[in-house]
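Researcher: I've been going back and forth with a colleague about how 7,8-dihydroneopterin aldolase might be arranged in three dimensions. Neither of us has a model we trust, so I'd like an independent prediction. The organism is SAR86 cluster bacterium, in case that matters for your notes. Sequence below.
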Amino acid sequence: MQDIIYIKDLRVQAIIGIFGWEREVRQEVSIDLEMSFDCKQAAKSDSIEDTVDYKKITKRIIKFVEESSFQLQETLAESIASLVKDEFNISSIKLRVSKPGALRHAEDVGVIIHR
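Model: Here is an independent structure prediction for 7,8-dihydroneopterin aldolase. You can compare it with whatever you and your colleague have in mind.
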C-alpha cells in the first residue's frame, strides 16, 4: 500500500472552454491531486529533501494553468498529470479538475483521472 500526499481545492484562473466567451475571460478551475509516495524515509529523517515538496508542485501547477488555454478539462487534467509525473518523479497520481459554477443547478462539473 502506498502513502498519499494530497493537495485539495487548488483554485486557479485559466482560459478554458469551447464557447467564444470562454476564450476571452479567465474562469476559475479547482484542482485536487493525490500523489502516491512512500513517506517512511521522510518520516524518519524529518527532512523536506526526502519527501514531495507540495509547495513547489503547487507553484508549478499554478504557473502552468494560468499560462494554458485549453478547450477541454480533459486536456488540462492530462497535461497537469504529465507535468507532475515528469517534473516531480511521481509514479502514480489521481487528479480532479473542475469548473465551479459551470452548470446551472450544479456546484461544479469536471473530470477525474488516474495515471
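Researcher: What would you highlight for our discussion?
Model: I'd start with this: The longest helix spans residues 73-88. After that, consider the following. The domain at 3-114 is CATH 3.30.1130.10 (GTP Cyclohydrolase I, domain 2).
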